[in-house]
Structure formats: C-alpha cells, structure tokens
Design a protein that fits this description.
Elements lengths: L6 H10 L9 H33 L2 E3 L7 E4 L4 E3 L4 H15 L4 H15 L5 H15 L8 H13 L13 H5 L5 H33 L5
Antiparallel strand pairs: 1-2, 2-3
C-alpha cells in the first residue's frame, strides 16, 4: 500500500509530471498514466477507509456486552475504560486522525488554486472529466455527483475564468468538525458520514475512469 505524507501533494506532482510523458496514442497514454495513477489512487483510498474504520473502532462506546452491564469499551479487543479515561481516549483518536489522514490546509488551497491549470493538461473530454473527479475526491468532503454534461460545463467555466480560477470546496473538513467535539458518539457519526461520502466519491471517480477506459482501449471480440 502507498504511504505518503500528503496524497494531495502526490496528486499535484503526478498531474504536473503528465506533460513530461505525454503520448499521442490514446491506449498507450491510458496504460502509462491513467491506469497506473488510478491504481495508486485506489491504494490511497483503501488507506483512507481503513483509517476511518480504525478511528471509529478506537472511539469509546458505552455498551452492554455478554450480558454485563453497560460499560465503556474501546479498540478491537474491546478494552474496558473507566469513565475518567474516556476523554483521554477521545483526544487520542482525534490526534490519530489529525496526524495520519488530515491533509495540510496549504496543500488543499494549492490544489484548488491549480485546478484549472491541472485540468488543462489534457484536452480529451473523458480525460478532463476524470481529472476533475479526482481533484474533487480530495478537496470536496461531501459527495458531489454530476453527470458528464454537467462536469463539462463546470470544466468550461473553470477554464474560461483563467489561471486565477479556484474550485470551490464549501464543506467543512473532518478535522474542523471534530476538533472541538468531546462526545465520542458525535465524532463516530462524523466518521461514519465521511466514510459514506468517501465511498460515493470513489464510485464517481471509478465511473469517470471507466469512461476513459472505454474511449481509449479497443476491445477485440
């Protein structure tokens, strides 16, 4: 699995490097760039999902297990916590998320500012939709489904605005939602909603990737 300090920086670097290995043949370009990039992104996505699940599991939960009275538990082994240990465990999980998954705000700002220029590195419609989808995967916390014509309109508007255009990212990040929260159930809810949105965004990226595959790869009967 890919381990990296900033998947957002990875995306910026890999897209900037695209021109250096640009190939006119659609199928070769797909194999050398889009396929390999998609597989790298899949590894990043899996890491992201695993970290969300780990954080959800590590959060304290007030449960009744094996017929015993309600008690605070946390972790894969359902370790018992005293009530006094609950706030400390909540803070530990919040720090785990911040250090392991939360992207640098500066990297997100840079990606938003570069979005127009990064999308313009290709001119094939399905390639542009895919790159648009991947950028949104990283900077838009919630699901943002748009069909192909809608994406084309957004891309055209973005490019028409010139190099100073900035792609919107209106929703709060996970860290902004949990930073001041102390209730483990509310934090768990944020993680669960985030995981659902993430899976939906990945589905959208995969749909855009399938479009590139269909338009670039000739399948012989």
């Amino acid at each position: 699995m890919i381990e990296m300090a900033s998947p957002v920086k990875w995306l910026i670097d890999v897209l900037k490097d695209f021109d250096k290995r640009r190939i006119a043949n659609n199928e070769e370009r797909f194999r050398l760039f889009f396929e390999t990039t998609y597989l790298d992104l899949l590894a990043i996505h899996r890491n992201h999902i695993e970290m969300l699940r780990k954080c959800e599991t590590e959060l304290p939960a007030f449960l009744s297990l094996n017929g015993k009275a309600h008690t605070w538990y946390a972790g894969m082994n359902a370790e018992i916590l005293s009530r006094e240990e609950v706030p400390e465990q909540v803070e530990r999980v919040k720090r785990l998320w911040q250090s392991a998954r939360e992207e640098s705000g500066g990297d997100r700002v840079k990606l938003r500012a570069l979005s127009s220029e990064l999308i313009k590195i290709v001119d094939h419609p399905s390639e542009r939709r895919y790159i648009f989808g991947v950028i949104n995967y990283f900077i838009h916390p919630e699901r943002m489904y748009i069909d192909a014509p809608g994406i084309d309109r957004k891309i055209k508007s973005l490019i028409d605005q010139g190099p100073d255009a900035i792609l919107d990212s209106p929703s709060l990040t996970v860290w902004e939602q949990i930073r001041s929260e102390e209730d483990p159930d509310k934090i768990r809810h944020v993680f669960g909603i985030t995981r659902g949105h993430l899976l939906a965004r990945w589905s959208e990226v995969s749909e855009r990737y399938a479009e590139v595959f269909t338009s670039h790869i000739s399948v012989k009967a």
